[in-house]
Design a protein that fits this description.
451 residues
């Protein structure tokens, strides 16, 4: 085939390598012209493909038999509306790689908690003796896993709505739906449209599929509809009596599993190293998924005890003794920031800002013990308008260094300085990881300088 690769970020580069390894003629195209894009295009040319940067040639893309679309490219982009290009079938990198994958998949989707649940499920499987890797939005692109000399026992895929939007045959053996709330309204016309792409995970269900669902989220429980397969649930409250299978926390604070009629205690919630009730829910989801994949309960319990969380997700990056500095840069929507605020038991100086994603910020005023909000970036005027009069809020218009310095000055003994922006990072940073690393470095400096 002649395969078009639209977008040369991580997944696009990987898809191009896979396509060429399978003998396909590759034409890669990216409208950007930054160093990363230019280097990716050069690599594709070295491997025998063709590539362009700085724009898209419609005729070249229209001549392809298939277009692999990077998740960062919205379906409304002009090149996809070109009459010739619009006629070419297109798939996500997730779908393109899945067609070549020789390993079963556990897919994790939802609005929040995907990365932690994906990483933790992988960790539990490895603890249980399986070869397992994380892929998708976390770890490797799925195409890179396909190209490995030996296929793993399990691939745990973090699947975003953008990736699921363009699937065809993608069919996880086990699917996890963490939770649902409005997000990406800068890209979707409605919440319903966003949810519709999430629901595509269930399209190719079979009788052997296993679905792990958040029983405390009504939208999650409705989403599978009449899809084939078994349902298992997780909830941080006690399971009702009966035949319902899954994971829960009992009145003593113990995490418990009931799978295939066998009930097992795993550990007490105080033994988990991750912060917050939402992470207890993530732990239950991962435990149910791992048990459904064949992991022994003793190994699951050991894995839950040893998992320390992920970078940029309620990550304690500095402790000045009297002030705790927490990096939650992955919180790119209002719901995720609300979860972070509710996870802390101390007053918070909240760094809120970046590129606005379409949600109101007013609900954050009652989500935690907010000492004050430092609003920054493109979204700052909207943040101030939404929160003024509800909590102390100020707009810091300077550099990110100025923003963090103002937060340090505002923090009192016993406070936490929390970067949980509820916004995309792209106004000031390359991605949320770049933002988190910048915050970590500044936080360490302020913590060391604090008297």
């Amino acid at each position: 085939m002649r395969v078009g690769i639209l977008g040369l970020a991580r997944s696009g580069r990987s898809a191009a390598r896979l396509a060429m390894a399978r003998g396909h003629d590759v034409f890669a195209s990216d409208a950007g012209s930054g160093d990363d894009v230019v280097h990716a295009a050069a690599e594709i040319r070295r491997l025998g493909g063709s590539a362009e940067t700085g724009g898209h040639t419609a005729g070249e893309l229209a001549s392809c038999d298939l277009i692999v679309l990077s998740p960062g490219i919205p379906p409304t982009v002009a090149i996809l509306r070109d009459p010739g290009v619009a006629l070419v079938p297109r798939v996500s990198e997730l779908e393109f790689a899945f067609r070549e994958l020789d390993a079963p998949v556990i897919a994790v989707t939802g609005t929040n908690g995907k990365s932690t649940t994906t990483a933790l499920t992988t960790h539990l499987l490895v603890q249980a003796g399986f070869s397992a890797v994380s892929a998708g939005n976390i770890g490797h692109a799925l195409s890179d896993v396909v190209l490995q000399a030996e296929q793993p026992d399990w691939v745990v895929v973090e699947a975003s709505s953008f990736q699921l939007a363009d699937i065809d045959t993608f069919a996880p053996r086990i699917g996890v739906l963490t939770n649902l709330s409005p997000d990406h309204l800068d890209r979707y016309p409605s919440v319903a449209a966003y949810y519709a792409d999430k629901a595509r995970m269930f399209e190719n269900a079979t009788a052997t599929s296993i679905w792990v669902l958040n029983a405390e989220d009504a939208a999650v429980m409705m989403m599978p509809g009449e899809a084939d397969g078994r349902r298992r649930v997780f909830r941080v409250s006690t399971l009702p009596d009966g035949a319902e299978e899954g994971g829960w926390i009992d009145d003593a604070g113990d995490l418990r599993l009931r799978v295939d009629g066998t009930e097992t205690r795993l550990l007490n919630r105080t033994e988990l190293r991750v912060l917050g009730e939402h992470n207890r829910a993530n732990a239950l989801a991962a435990a149910v998924a791992a048990r459904s994949a064949g992991a022994a309960t003793a190994a699951i319990a050991d894995g839950l005890r040893t998992f320390g969380g992920l970078e940029h997700r309620l990550e304690v990056v500095a402790d000045a003794g009297d002030v705790l500095w927490i990096n939650d840069s992955k919180a790119t929507n209002v719901t995720s920031t609300g979860v972070a605020l509710r996870s802390l038991d101390r007053p918070v100086v909240l760094l809120l800002g970046g590129r606005h994603k379409g949600e109101a910020y007013t609900s954050l005023a009652s989500a935690g013990r907010i000492r004050g909000v430092i609003a920054y970036g493109e979204a700052a005027p909207r943040i101030v308008a939404d929160l003024e009069g509800l909590v102390p809020v100020e707009h810091v218009a300077g550099s990110f260094e100025d923003v963090v310095a103002r937060a340090a000055a505002a923090a009192r003994a016993g406070d936490a300085v929390l970067l949980s922006p509820a916004c995309a990072s792209f106004d000031m940073f390359r991605d949320y990881e770049d933002r988190g690393r910048a915050f970590r470095a500044l936080a360490v400096g302020h913590a060391e300088a604090r008297p």
